[in-house]
Design goal:
The structure is a homodimer of 409-residue chains. With 409 residues, chain A is α/β, with parallel strands linked by helices. The longest helix of chain A has 28 residues. Chain A is built from 13 helices and 14 strands. Chain A has two domains: 136 residues, Aspartate Aminotransferase, domain 1 (Alpha-Beta Complex), CATH 3.90.1150.10; 231 residues, Aspartate Aminotransferase, domain 2 (3-Layer(aba) Sandwich). In chain A, the strands form three sheets. In chain A, strands 2-9-8-7-6-3-4-5 form an eight-stranded mixed β-sheet, sandwiched between helices. A four-stranded antiparallel β-sheet of chain A has the order 10-11-14-13. A two-stranded parallel sheet of chain A has the order 1-12.
């Protein structure tokens, strides 16, 4: 592994490198390491949060690529373009969210937006709050920026804002609070309106900024979405992505922020990557500009994931009965499940599951303060519906502890 | 502008945001602001370091995009892919540079590689050395990481390694030394072999790492290239880019580093943007895999830029005579010129030049410690050869100080 800073001896051996403290603050995500195992042939993966590749609008994207390339004799789609993003795509995002264009910055996926926000707000030792369990990419970006993480427990309604309020009353002062408001990763929870309102009130009162990450909100097939965080406070930064609604391999996302923050994010993005790929921005804009395409495509995605979510829920009921607790999904890509049998450890069982031909993500992979050893994240997005039953059968065979599980009658 | 950290009052107004110290360390590049002015119709720009858009292999890239999209029924070109880059492209880079594949990481342009290296090596207050004048993207990335910049003067042979050695002897201890070894930005200088060898020796002796940025090396039409820095030391990180040899709007670059450093860079890239766009990597690999394409394309680029460089040199001789000193280019995209008349300030004259219908970049925009007020960077890449003479005529009309300039006989 990496050797950390060994200052001092100028005659050190050529194989030693003085790396910065930043490298020491992060470690390779356990989840990435586990996902690498989930790549075996024959294995049914309930692990990765990958969108279904058969849902990608391949021909529409190919046509758009040809259109933007051949439509610009000056090679405009291949030239450098502004750091904040191309005007047309910024305008599209602004229109979709009902905000002024100068609040919008196009980013290289919403992960980059998260990193820019972390760098823009978090100095070494600053407190940043987020739900535990939490999105690994957020935990890593905040840690890399030097954050002291304030882990707030979450329940079926997402981050527990009353617990956060209690920590604030006791004197903790986060510079930001990160939340995935719709179909949270990993818990699948959607934060209800009252809780969002309370969080907005705390942001105003304690002067932190709410970072609302919403890559899954468009993937809702049941119920209705609570209002966005911007309804409750101006102290909000919204992260969006085309990864889950078009394709992740394009790496196009965006961040909407109050003007002074937007200006700072563009300033930070200059030395980070100059700009997001011009070609990809042009292609995304071209695809979004096809009359009727996006709504029809979203309808197809919702139908596809609703079918798979239902198949997964049925399989879990059938094979685990009351041995596994979970809330069926109204949207998004995964569910979070709790094993009733407290003697079974999902992290320990992971290797056995792989050997049995099924992959899942153990709760421990998402933990900050908590261990989440009886919990696991199950994705229904990447495996076809007809494989889900067999996958869950293998899962049941792996996780069945000493207490017999009652099959559903 | 951005309000910096105003900690304290929890009842601050909603429009104030507590931004981190990182934001305060950088400022919008003067050059970006000046380039924004160079976008007027009718203006002849010698300012931007943009590749010639008519040189982009548009149809080859369009065909490659269609091939990689339609050739993958699983939508592979649109799915997530590994942080370190797709295997085929890493292997291509490794083959081209004669290094092991595990040293190669694909990045979102070489600017991202620079930012990752800065984050990986530079902690707040660490010393990083580079040539003055220097590449603005490097100055910004290093400052953002918290570097204390050690500005080393440069001459026609690039960074003055003897001056660097003197600073090292006096006790300065950079963690890295950044150099553009071939056709430097902004000076156009190529560092000769002896100086590279001396720099390599200092890296070994003082334990710093040499960051060799080489986006322009393939654009050589005269003379021969000195050996790469890796010839002289193992303590080297090489940054490469497809921006100048294919197209910048693809945002695909790479970094080659010793294995422990490569491992750290991948770790850092995870929270930064997860990965570089899969589609763009596949497209670049597809284009590079066309038999004979790259060498033929490079030959065309070299011929194009050689023609423009010659036209610029002729025009400068014709209009300025001995009033302007510069070294004709053997490659790259620009030259660095010195006005003999010390009463003329290229920064002050910039607005007048724009009004006269020509844009250039004043030396001051590249300064770290130095002011470079009699110097300017002139790019020959973006303006067609037949516009260069008229552009230089306007430049001469703007910059002609009280001392009459002798036209070439």
């Amino acid at each position: 592994m990496v050797k950390l800073r060994d200052t001092g001896n100028p005659d050190r051996s050529p194989s030693s490198y003085r790396l910065s403290g930043a490298v020491g603050r992060i470690e390779s995500s356990m989840i990435r390491d586990l996902l690498a195992l989930a790549d075996r042939p024959g294995l049914i993966s309930l692990a990765g949060g990958l969108p279904a590749p058969e849902s990608f609008p391949v021909s529409v994207i190919a046509e758009a690529a040809v259109a933007v390339l051949t439509g610009n004799v000056g090679g405009g789609a291949l030239q450098y373009s502004p750091t904040q993003g191309i005007a047309g795509l910024r305008a599209w995002v602004a229109g979709r969210h009902g905000v002024a264009v100068h609040r919008v910055t196009i980013t290289s996926g919403s992960q980059q937006a998260l990193d820019l926000v972390a760098r823009g707000f978090v100095g070494t030792g600053d407190v940043a709050a987020l739900a535990d369990p939490g999105y690994v990419g957020a935990i890593q970006a905040l840690r890399l920026a030097g954050a002291d993480l304030l882990a707030v427990p979450s329940d079926g309604d997402g981050l527990m804002v009353d617990v956060l309020e209690d920590r604030l009353r006791r004197g903790r002062r986060p510079v930001l609070v990160y939340v995935v408001t719709n179909f949270d990763n990993p818990t699948g929870a959607t934060m209800p309106a009252e809780r969002r309102s309370a969080l907005g009130g705390l942001a105003e009162r304690y002067g932190f900024v709410v970072v609302e990450d919403d890559p899954y909100g468009e993937l809702r097939w049941a119920g209705s979405a609570p209002p966005a965080m911007a309804t409750y406070t101006e102290r909000v930064i919204t992260l969006g992505s085309f990864s889950k609604i078009l394709a992740p391999g394009l790496r196009v996302g965006y961040v909407i922020a109050p003007p002074p923050v937007a200006e700072a994010l563009v300033l930070l993005k200059q030395p980070v990557d100059l700009q997001t790929a011009t070609l990809n921005q042009r292609v995304v804009l071209e695809v979004l500009s096809r009359p009727g395409f996006l709504e029809a495509h979203l309808a197809r995605l919702r139908a596809l994931y609703a079918r798979r979510a239902a198949a997964l829920a049925t399989a879990l009921h059938d094979h685990f009965g009351p041995g596994l607790r979970f809330t069926p999904a109204d949207g998004g890509l995964f569910i979070w499940a709790h094993l009733v049998d407290r003697s079974v450890d999902t992290l320990e069982k992971h290797t056995a599951a792989i050997d049995n031909g099924v992959a899942y993500l153990p709760g421990a992979g998402f933990g900050i303060d908590g261990r989440h050893r009886q919990e696991l994240r199950l994705s229904f997005s990447a495996a076809p519906a007809d494989q889900l039953d067999e996958g869950v059968r293998r899962l049941r065979a792996t996780l069945a502890g000493p207490v017999p599980l009652r099959p559903r009658s």
